[in-house]
Amino acid sequence: MKSVLLLSMLTTSSAFAPSSIISTSKITTRIHAEKEPLFTSATEEKSSEERDRKQTIRDEAQDALVSVGWSAPMMADELTADDPFVRRINEQIQEESGVDLDQLLNPAKVVNLERDLVNLRSQLADLTGITGIDNFIGITTEEIDNGGGGEDADKLRKKISKKEKDLLIERRSVFRGWLKNIFLGQAILSLGLSWIMVTDPSILFGGFDWFNNTNSIDISIQVLGFWWWWLFIVPSLRSRRPKGFEKKALDIAFLATPLVSLLAPVATKDTAEIWIANFAVTAGAYAFAYLTFDKDGDNNDGSKDPEWLKFIYKSLDFGSGRERGARN
Questions:
Q1: What is the pTM of this model?
Q2: Residue 314 has what pLDDT?
Q3: Cα dist. 64→114, 169, 179 in Å?
Q4: β-bridge mates for residue 104, sequence order
């Protein structure tokens, strides 16, 4: 009886054991199978978020560069004021505001935004199935947006919308005469303050404890005084965006004044004399530019200057409102 009972228990165990093992294995396999897509989806989502984050960083960096007039050109050649693309923008602004392109607050940014919009609209046309357009200059977004295009097209639409809003603001921002007068006043004020700094800085700072208690602070201020020519006076005058001989004179002064401030201390320690030397160099630059400037000449735009000199002048122009696409 016991043997029969034992045999029955073993049979029962053997009958249930494989089924339990297989069942457990199936459940485990099913759980893993269910979890695997979840892990894959989470990884893909994280990867997508990372791509979006990197793209956002790139877009912000691009916007920062465009805001100061620097951006990749629409074509291999650098845009100039004679380029048909720039001339077209200039004509549009003349119709809208009655001023030229170079009279805007940031003409380079306007050109760069216009160029970026042409490129973005071309990409959007490809994504939405618009064909047969060879030249996207002068084409509006509505004309090339056929709808659809998926997520990539939606991202392009957002970029285009943002740039169109920025462009509208920039095209209305005119460099007014009162702003030029502010820069001129800043230059005159800097001229007077810098002279006091190199002659008797105690007039300006004598009432402060730090001036009386700090060793050699007066010498540091006197040195700063003659560097004021390169740091504030000449840049303030250049910020007015002068043309003709004055632009050439200020370009020369901007290159010459730092050399005077660096080399003059070898000959004299008198800061007032170094300040006067900077003044003489700036005045001499005006005289030289005036005497050598020919209104009807064919090189007043610098087209025949040596390449190294063109590079220097181009570098000086960057940031003063005469960057790419804003040249005469």
A1: 0.60
A2: 63
A3: 16, 16, 24
A4: 174
